[in-house]
Amino acid sequence: MNFTFKLSIAAIILIFSLTSCEDFFETTLELDPPPFEKTLVVDCVSNIMADTIQMRISQNQGILEDKPNYALDISDADVYLNVNGMELKAATISSLDRNDNRNNYRVVLPSKLKSGDNVQIKVTHKDFNEAGAAMEILPTSDILSAVFSENGGLDRDGNKKSKVSVTFNDPKGKNFYAIKISVPNYDDISDYTYITSVDPSAYESYDYETLLLSDEGFDGEKKVIDFLIDPLYYDNDKGKIKLNWYHISEDYFKFSRSLRAYKNTEDNPFGSPVPVISNINGGVGIFAIHNLQIVDVE
Fold it and tell me: Hey, how many other C-beta atoms are within 10 angstroms of the C-beta on 216?
């Protein structure tokens, strides 16, 4: 009898608590958005093998705005690329030429960029503050070998994977790298493949076909790192694997990691907002031109 009475009291308390929760979730909260200033957004990521440098110039939007990306594009800005003191003006890319290309400006280079080149970007527009950034093209990496092993490794979940082992000399000082691996698909067309690594120096990029490396744990040393990929379609594809090795700036390393963290939390209503790192003065965005080497995997 006493147990039944206690159980009834508990049920009543539970009913009232659920009713209270329902009222709570139906409450409308009015929140003031944080202060917001319109600014230029510069998105320019390229590499030294490109004949042209393309970029997207747009504007930001407030937290309560929900405009599609194309509506944020700016088509009447003045965009300049300065290479070792030579100023080059960018031309707009027409909507017909753009197709799936998100960039809306292009600079044709008189010659390809190389290690040690100083490159600046400057964007002006009558409605915004001037935005820009500067960088120096990093040196090439000393890659000693890249060797493929079929079913040669295990991922973090214990699944068997094929392996590409890369040996390289890391120069003294802070260095950062990005890695992509291309393999033939079922149509024998080379595509970037999803790669992972259990090495503690490897980090996820904002895109799933790239891994980032920091030399914090092996500064100035010879390093061997294993990258894991899915098995190949055909046995004769082994000789067609390519290692794409980018020597990247610290700015880009931080940008890519912060963008990945942002993407991981943007659909989580209980997650803390993650700021995306920018290296654009007077605006926001990223300016990076990587030193790229493409290596045949043995």
Answer: 11
Among 284, 294, 236, residue whose Cα is nearest residue 36: 284
Instruction: Identify the structural domains of the chain with CATH numbers, from first to last.
Output: 40-136 (2.60.40), 142-275+290-296 (2.60.40)
* Verdict on whether the full-model pTM lies above 0.70: yes
Encoding tokens for residue 227? 């990258």
Nearest in space to 288 (alpha carbons), one of 206, 228, 233, 231: 206
The one-character DSSP state at 21 is: H
**For 118-174, how does the pLDDT look when each residue is reduced to its tens digit (9 = 90+)?**
999 999 999 999 999 999 999 999 999 999 998 877 888 888 889 999 999 999 999
| CA diameter of the chain | 93
Query: 224 with 146: CB under 8 angstroms?
Result: no
Distance between CA atoms of residues 105 and 112, nearest Å? 18
Q: What is the 3-state secondary structure (H, E, C) of 100-121?
A: CCCCCEEEECCCCCCCCCEEEE
Could you tell me which of 174, 173, 175, 116 has the C-alpha nearest to residue 141? 175
Determine the number of helices (DSSP H) and then strands (DSSP E) in the chain. Answer: 3, 17
Question: What number is the average pLDDT over the span 20-38?
Answer: 57
Closest CA to 290 of 254, 258, 244, 257: 244
